[in-house]
Here is the input.
Amino acid sequence: MEKTILITGSNGLLGQKLIYNLLERNKKSPDWKIIATSKGENRILEKNGYTYLSLDITNREEVIATFVKYHPDVLINTAAMTNVDACESDRMEAKRLNVDAVKYLIEGINEAAEKNPMVNTHFIQLSTDFIFDGENGPYAEDAKPNPLSYYAETKLKAEELLESTFLKWAILRTIIVYGIVDGMSRSNVVLWAKDSLERKQKINVVDDQFRSPTLAEDLAEGCVLCAERKATGIFHMSGKDQMSILELVYRVADFWKLNKDLITAVKSETIKQPAKRPARTGFIIEKAKRVLGYDPHSFEEGLAILDEQLKK
Ligand SMILES: NC(=O)c1ccc[n+]([C@@H]2O[C@H](COP(=O)([O-])OP(=O)(O)OC[C@H]3O[C@@H](n4cnc5c(N)ncnc54)[C@H](OP(=O)(O)O)[C@@H]3O)[C@@H](O)[C@H]2O)c1
Here is the structure.
């Protein structure tokens, strides 16, 4: 039987990849009634095969009315204030979008369930490696969080909100998501490095922060696997390679044969960023592999996929 899946933030990097992933799945077997929602106009080039609703998730009434009307089997909440430094300087907005809106989504699901208890919405929430302090990554799901920035605090608060409900929930934590979609509102480290080096611009890159970059397609696949398998609990979903940001940028330069002399290694403390970043994250992704069949590409395979998309 067809199930309804509602995506928030569908204009974003993960949001768009999710819509395309679900559309591809529906070609093989039409399992999903897809509802894409984001703030403002739809920026996905493909307009067929799903319903688009303009939905600002910080608007409580709108959120509740949408859930009562559509009562989805699955919600994937990708919408968030994702700019870590902006969250530090505009804390009110960060709380509104990353915490209060999650409350409204929970309320929306609860109100919809009062009207029709037969549907038990599976709430899948995206979270981040930044909830950890980076003292001893890579991290497993049960490691102790210790957020260093306000962004991280809000994302952890959202996790706690979900954990305190009686809903069917899953929290998928991820790390530096890279990829390209239509009408992007913000870039990512891979595109930034490639673009800067192509324009022969000198760049400073930190060599004391370690991450496992995640291809947006892999994360979208992981989210859909979680929905299909009705999995609950916390899952770590990143790429499988851990590297410093400097190494990441070198590997981007190597892949596109760009001039590495333009890259200068610097320490985090020398670049003035409003939000503090964890030094070493990275995830142990065995649980997602075992329970969900999550199987991410290597970093270079991910770059090759991105390269194909850029050529189109
Ligand atoms: N990207 C990363 O490196 C990373 C790392 C760790 C965790 N995550 C988490 O993964 C999730 C997805 O990230 P992403 O990279 O796909 O983010 P993204 O590209 O910034 O997408 C977020 C989307 O949410 C939309 N949005 C903003 N305010 C909204 C509102 N009030 N109502 C509805 N939609 C709103 C944005 O719209 P506009 O495009 O119009 O602004 C944007 O399209 C987030 O929860 C993030 O915290 C991301």
